[in-house]
Design a protein that fits this description.
Low-confidence stretches: 210-223
CATH topology of the largest domain: D-Maltodextrin-Binding Protein, domain 2
Oligomer: single chain
Strand content: 15-25%
CATH superfamily of the largest domain: Periplasmic binding protein-like II
Length: about 325
Protein backbone atom coordinates (compact mmCIF):
# COMPACT_ATOMS: atom_id res chain seq x y z
CA UNK A 1 0.00 0.00 0.00
CA UNK A 2 1.33 3.45 -0.88
CA UNK A 3 0.22 7.07 -1.03
CA UNK A 4 -0.26 6.97 -4.79
CA UNK A 5 -2.74 4.13 -4.51
CA UNK A 6 -4.71 6.05 -1.88
CA UNK A 7 -4.81 9.08 -4.20
CA UNK A 8 -6.17 6.93 -7.02
CA UNK A 9 -8.85 5.40 -4.79
CA UNK A 10 -9.99 8.83 -3.62
CA UNK A 11 -10.05 10.16 -7.18
CA UNK A 12 -12.29 7.30 -8.34
CA UNK A 13 -14.59 7.90 -5.37
CA UNK A 14 -14.75 11.63 -6.17
CA UNK A 15 -15.64 11.16 -9.83
CA UNK A 16 -17.19 7.66 -9.77
CA UNK A 17 -15.49 7.12 -13.11
CA UNK A 18 -12.12 5.46 -13.76
CA UNK A 19 -11.31 7.39 -16.94
CA UNK A 20 -12.05 10.77 -15.37
CA UNK A 21 -10.08 9.87 -12.24
CA UNK A 22 -7.10 8.81 -14.36
CA UNK A 23 -7.24 12.09 -16.27
CA UNK A 24 -7.19 14.13 -13.06
CA UNK A 25 -4.33 12.01 -11.67
CA UNK A 26 -2.38 12.43 -14.95
CA UNK A 27 -2.01 8.70 -15.59
CA UNK A 28 -3.55 6.30 -18.08
CA UNK A 29 -6.72 4.47 -17.11
CA UNK A 30 -5.04 1.03 -17.27
CA UNK A 31 -2.32 2.25 -14.90
CA UNK A 32 -4.83 3.63 -12.40
CA UNK A 33 -7.00 0.50 -12.59
CA UNK A 34 -4.00 -1.77 -12.13
CA UNK A 35 -2.77 0.13 -9.06
CA UNK A 36 -6.19 -0.02 -7.42
CA UNK A 37 -6.51 -3.71 -8.28
CA UNK A 38 -3.14 -4.40 -6.63
CA UNK A 39 -4.34 -2.63 -3.50
CA UNK A 40 -7.52 -4.70 -3.51
CA UNK A 41 -5.47 -7.88 -3.87
CA UNK A 42 -3.18 -6.82 -1.02
CA UNK A 43 -6.16 -6.13 1.25
CA UNK A 44 -8.12 -9.12 -0.11
CA UNK A 45 -11.29 -7.01 -0.57
CA UNK A 46 -13.11 -5.23 -3.38
CA UNK A 47 -13.04 -1.45 -2.88
CA UNK A 48 -15.26 -0.66 -5.88
CA UNK A 49 -18.18 -2.39 -7.53
CA UNK A 50 -17.21 -2.06 -11.19
CA UNK A 51 -20.52 -3.52 -12.40
CA UNK A 52 -22.36 -0.33 -11.34
CA UNK A 53 -22.59 2.71 -13.58
CA UNK A 54 -21.39 5.03 -12.28
CA UNK A 55 -18.97 2.93 -10.29
CA UNK A 56 -19.73 2.69 -6.56
CA UNK A 57 -17.64 1.75 -3.54
CA UNK A 58 -18.53 -1.46 -1.74
CA UNK A 59 -19.57 -1.39 1.92
CA UNK A 60 -16.01 -2.14 3.06
CA UNK A 61 -14.74 0.15 0.31
CA UNK A 62 -16.55 3.11 1.89
CA UNK A 63 -14.72 2.50 5.16
CA UNK A 64 -11.38 2.16 3.38
CA UNK A 65 -11.94 5.36 1.42
CA UNK A 66 -12.83 7.26 4.58
CA UNK A 67 -9.58 6.15 6.23
CA UNK A 68 -7.65 6.82 3.01
CA UNK A 69 -8.83 10.44 3.08
CA UNK A 70 -7.74 10.82 6.69
CA UNK A 71 -4.35 9.18 6.05
CA UNK A 72 -3.67 11.21 2.91
CA UNK A 73 -4.63 14.44 4.65
CA UNK A 74 -2.24 13.71 7.52
CA UNK A 75 0.51 12.76 5.08
CA UNK A 76 0.14 16.08 3.26
CA UNK A 77 0.28 17.94 6.58
CA UNK A 78 3.98 17.02 6.88
CA UNK A 79 4.83 18.91 3.70
CA UNK A 80 2.53 21.78 4.65
CA UNK A 81 4.26 22.19 8.02
CA UNK A 82 7.58 22.63 6.20
CA UNK A 83 6.10 25.03 3.64
CA UNK A 84 4.57 27.12 6.41
CA UNK A 85 7.87 27.24 8.33
CA UNK A 86 9.63 28.40 5.14
CA UNK A 87 6.81 30.91 4.50
CA UNK A 88 6.12 29.44 1.07
CA UNK A 89 2.90 30.94 -0.29
CA UNK A 90 2.72 29.21 -3.64
CA UNK A 91 0.44 26.27 -4.25
CA UNK A 92 -3.29 25.77 -4.12
CA UNK A 93 -6.11 26.86 -1.84
CA UNK A 94 -9.61 25.40 -2.24
CA UNK A 95 -12.16 27.89 -0.95
CA UNK A 96 -15.88 27.25 -0.44
CA UNK A 97 -18.50 30.02 -0.21
CA UNK A 98 -22.17 29.91 0.73
CA UNK A 99 -24.61 31.14 -1.98
CA UNK A 100 -25.86 34.21 -0.08
CA UNK A 101 -22.29 35.55 -0.03
CA UNK A 102 -20.90 34.18 -3.29
CA UNK A 103 -22.97 36.29 -5.68
CA UNK A 104 -21.33 39.57 -4.68
CA UNK A 105 -18.03 38.50 -3.09
CA UNK A 106 -16.72 35.97 -5.65
CA UNK A 107 -16.28 38.50 -8.50
CA UNK A 108 -14.25 40.84 -6.25
CA UNK A 109 -12.13 38.01 -4.83
CA UNK A 110 -11.32 36.82 -8.35
CA UNK A 111 -10.31 40.33 -9.34
CA UNK A 112 -8.07 40.77 -6.28
CA UNK A 113 -6.50 37.36 -6.86
CA UNK A 114 -5.82 37.98 -10.55
CA UNK A 115 -4.24 41.38 -9.92
CA UNK A 116 -1.96 40.56 -7.02
CA UNK A 117 -1.84 36.92 -5.94
CA UNK A 118 -1.27 34.84 -9.06
CA UNK A 119 1.25 32.58 -7.30
CA UNK A 120 -1.69 31.00 -5.47
CA UNK A 121 -3.83 28.56 -7.41
CA UNK A 122 -7.24 29.55 -6.02
CA UNK A 123 -10.24 27.28 -6.58
CA UNK A 124 -13.69 28.57 -5.57
CA UNK A 125 -16.76 26.43 -4.89
CA UNK A 126 -20.30 27.52 -3.99
CA UNK A 127 -22.28 25.26 -1.69
CA UNK A 128 -24.49 25.19 1.42
CA UNK A 129 -23.18 25.56 4.95
CA UNK A 130 -23.63 21.89 5.89
CA UNK A 131 -21.90 20.67 2.73
CA UNK A 132 -18.98 23.07 3.20
CA UNK A 133 -18.52 22.00 6.83
CA UNK A 134 -18.40 18.35 5.72
CA UNK A 135 -15.77 19.14 3.07
CA UNK A 136 -13.68 21.19 5.50
CA UNK A 137 -13.69 18.27 7.90
CA UNK A 138 -12.76 15.64 5.30
CA UNK A 139 -10.05 17.81 3.75
CA UNK A 140 -11.53 18.34 0.28
CA UNK A 141 -11.65 22.09 1.04
CA UNK A 142 -8.97 24.21 2.69
CA UNK A 143 -11.24 27.02 3.80
CA UNK A 144 -14.77 28.33 3.66
CA UNK A 145 -16.42 31.74 3.77
CA UNK A 146 -19.51 31.22 5.90
CA UNK A 147 -21.85 33.09 8.20
CA UNK A 148 -21.29 32.35 11.85
CA UNK A 149 -20.52 31.86 14.56
CA UNK A 150 -20.69 28.09 13.98
CA UNK A 151 -18.97 27.06 17.23
CA UNK A 152 -17.93 23.75 15.64
CA UNK A 153 -15.32 21.88 17.72
CA UNK A 154 -13.35 20.81 14.62
CA UNK A 155 -13.16 24.24 12.99
CA UNK A 156 -11.45 27.58 13.61
CA UNK A 157 -13.30 30.79 12.68
CA UNK A 158 -11.55 34.00 11.63
CA UNK A 159 -14.19 36.77 11.56
CA UNK A 160 -13.64 39.02 8.54
CA UNK A 161 -16.59 41.38 8.35
CA UNK A 162 -20.03 42.21 9.68
CA UNK A 163 -22.89 43.22 7.40
CA UNK A 164 -26.15 44.80 8.45
CA UNK A 165 -29.57 43.49 7.48
CA UNK A 166 -31.99 45.69 5.54
CA UNK A 167 -35.64 45.32 4.67
CA UNK A 168 -36.51 45.30 0.98
CA UNK A 169 -40.12 46.53 0.82
CA UNK A 170 -42.69 46.12 -1.93
CA UNK A 171 -44.09 49.38 -3.37
CA UNK A 172 -47.45 47.57 -3.18
CA UNK A 173 -47.26 47.20 0.60
CA UNK A 174 -48.91 49.67 2.98
CA UNK A 175 -45.67 50.04 4.98
CA UNK A 176 -43.78 51.30 1.92
CA UNK A 177 -44.23 54.91 3.05
CA UNK A 178 -42.39 54.22 6.29
CA UNK A 179 -38.82 55.56 6.42
CA UNK A 180 -37.81 52.83 8.87
CA UNK A 181 -39.35 49.42 9.43
CA UNK A 182 -40.62 48.50 12.88
CA UNK A 183 -40.49 44.70 12.92
CA UNK A 184 -43.02 44.65 15.77
CA UNK A 185 -45.59 46.01 13.34
CA UNK A 186 -44.73 43.81 10.35
CA UNK A 187 -47.24 41.15 9.31
CA UNK A 188 -44.98 38.13 9.68
CA UNK A 189 -46.93 36.21 7.05
CA UNK A 190 -45.79 38.80 4.50
CA UNK A 191 -42.04 38.12 4.88
CA UNK A 192 -40.66 36.21 1.89
CA UNK A 193 -37.92 33.72 2.85
CA UNK A 194 -35.09 31.64 1.49
CA UNK A 195 -35.28 27.85 1.55
CA UNK A 196 -34.52 26.02 4.80
CA UNK A 197 -31.05 24.89 3.67
CA UNK A 198 -29.74 28.47 3.78
CA UNK A 199 -28.32 29.65 7.12
CA UNK A 200 -29.48 33.19 6.29
CA UNK A 201 -33.07 32.00 6.69
CA UNK A 202 -32.41 30.96 10.28
CA UNK A 203 -30.98 34.38 11.09
CA UNK A 204 -34.00 36.13 9.55
CA UNK A 205 -36.37 33.88 11.49
CA UNK A 206 -34.62 34.91 14.70
CA UNK A 207 -34.60 38.53 13.66
CA UNK A 208 -38.34 38.54 12.95
CA UNK A 209 -39.28 36.05 15.68
CA UNK A 210 -41.02 34.11 12.92
CA UNK A 211 -41.25 30.88 14.87
CA UNK A 212 -42.96 32.49 17.81
CA UNK A 213 -45.45 34.33 15.60
CA UNK A 214 -46.20 31.33 13.39
CA UNK A 215 -47.22 29.41 16.49
CA UNK A 216 -49.65 32.14 17.56
CA UNK A 217 -52.30 31.26 14.99
CA UNK A 218 -51.45 34.22 12.75
CA UNK A 219 -52.82 33.84 9.18
CA UNK A 220 -50.33 33.01 6.47
CA UNK A 221 -50.05 33.53 2.72
CA UNK A 222 -52.46 31.53 0.59
CA UNK A 223 -49.38 31.22 -1.63
CA UNK A 224 -46.05 30.23 -0.05
CA UNK A 225 -42.81 30.59 -1.93
CA UNK A 226 -39.35 29.78 -0.60
CA UNK A 227 -36.47 30.67 -2.88
CA UNK A 228 -32.84 29.63 -3.11
CA UNK A 229 -31.94 33.08 -4.45
CA UNK A 230 -32.03 36.50 -2.81
CA UNK A 231 -32.44 38.10 -6.26
CA UNK A 232 -35.53 35.99 -6.90
CA UNK A 233 -37.05 37.09 -3.59
CA UNK A 234 -36.33 40.72 -4.48
CA UNK A 235 -38.14 40.26 -7.79
CA UNK A 236 -41.07 38.60 -6.01
CA UNK A 237 -41.35 41.59 -3.67
CA UNK A 238 -41.28 43.98 -6.64
CA UNK A 239 -44.54 42.48 -7.89
CA UNK A 240 -46.22 41.35 -4.67
CA UNK A 241 -46.99 42.93 -1.27
CA UNK A 242 -44.62 42.07 1.54
CA UNK A 243 -40.94 42.38 2.39
CA UNK A 244 -37.79 40.32 2.29
CA UNK A 245 -34.64 40.86 4.33
CA UNK A 246 -31.25 41.08 2.65
CA UNK A 247 -27.63 41.51 3.79
CA UNK A 248 -25.79 44.79 3.32
CA UNK A 249 -23.42 43.84 0.50
CA UNK A 250 -26.29 42.48 -1.56
CA UNK A 251 -28.16 45.72 -0.93
CA UNK A 252 -25.12 47.72 -2.12
CA UNK A 253 -25.23 45.91 -5.46
CA UNK A 254 -28.82 46.85 -6.27
CA UNK A 255 -29.51 49.33 -9.05
CA UNK A 256 -30.72 52.85 -8.26
CA UNK A 257 -34.39 52.01 -8.76
CA UNK A 258 -34.31 49.04 -6.37
CA UNK A 259 -32.29 51.04 -3.81
CA UNK A 260 -35.45 53.12 -3.33
CA UNK A 261 -37.12 50.06 -1.82
CA UNK A 262 -34.53 49.56 0.94
CA UNK A 263 -35.36 50.43 4.53
CA UNK A 264 -33.35 50.31 7.75
CA UNK A 265 -34.94 48.84 10.89
CA UNK A 266 -36.30 51.11 13.59
CA UNK A 267 -34.41 50.97 16.89
CA UNK A 268 -32.54 47.87 15.79
CA UNK A 269 -29.03 47.10 14.59
CA UNK A 270 -28.81 43.53 13.29
CA UNK A 271 -25.78 42.07 11.51
CA UNK A 272 -24.38 38.76 10.39
CA UNK A 273 -20.79 37.74 11.04
CA UNK A 274 -18.90 36.43 8.01
CA UNK A 275 -15.75 34.44 8.67
CA UNK A 276 -13.01 32.50 6.93
CA UNK A 277 -13.26 29.04 8.47
CA UNK A 278 -10.66 26.26 8.37
CA UNK A 279 -10.16 22.88 9.95
CA UNK A 280 -8.21 22.82 13.21
CA UNK A 281 -5.72 20.60 11.35
CA UNK A 282 -4.93 23.27 8.74
CA UNK A 283 -1.29 24.27 9.30
CA UNK A 284 -0.38 26.65 6.45
CA UNK A 285 -0.74 29.86 8.46
CA UNK A 286 1.20 31.92 5.92
CA UNK A 287 -1.17 30.86 3.16
CA UNK A 288 -4.13 31.44 5.46
CA UNK A 289 -3.03 35.02 6.14
CA UNK A 290 -2.80 35.68 2.39
CA UNK A 291 -6.35 34.40 1.84
CA UNK A 292 -7.58 36.52 4.75
CA UNK A 293 -5.88 39.53 3.17
CA UNK A 294 -7.59 38.90 -0.18
CA UNK A 295 -11.01 38.65 1.46
CA UNK A 296 -10.52 41.74 3.64
CA UNK A 297 -9.38 43.73 0.60
CA UNK A 298 -12.61 42.68 -1.11
CA UNK A 299 -14.87 44.15 1.58
CA UNK A 300 -15.50 47.81 2.59
CA UNK A 301 -13.47 48.80 5.66
CA UNK A 302 -16.64 50.13 7.30
CA UNK A 303 -17.90 46.54 7.54
CA UNK A 304 -14.78 45.28 9.31
CA UNK A 305 -15.53 47.03 12.60
CA UNK A 306 -15.27 44.40 15.39
CA UNK A 307 -17.64 46.47 17.58
CA UNK A 308 -20.48 45.27 15.32
CA UNK A 309 -20.03 41.78 16.73
CA UNK A 310 -22.27 42.80 19.65
CA UNK A 311 -25.20 42.95 17.18
CA UNK A 312 -24.71 39.56 15.48
CA UNK A 313 -27.86 37.49 14.94
CA UNK A 314 -27.15 33.84 15.78
CA UNK A 315 -27.63 31.12 13.17
Amino acid sequence: MNVQQLEYVIAVDNFRHFARAAEVCHVTQPTLSMMIQKLEEELDVKIFDRSKHPVEPTAIGKQIIEQARISLRHFKLIKEVVENEQQIVTGSFRLGIIPTIASYLVPVILHKHNTGYKDIDLTLKESTTNELISELMNGTLDGGILAGPLNHPGLIEYPVYYEKFYAYVSPLDNIYSEKEIDLNKVDISMVWLLENEHCLRGQIERLCKLKRNSESGKPVHTVRYESGSIDTLINVVDYNPGITIIPEMHAMGLNEEKQENLRAFKDLTAVREVSLIVSREYVRKTMLNIILEIIRNSVPKSMQNPELKAHVIDL
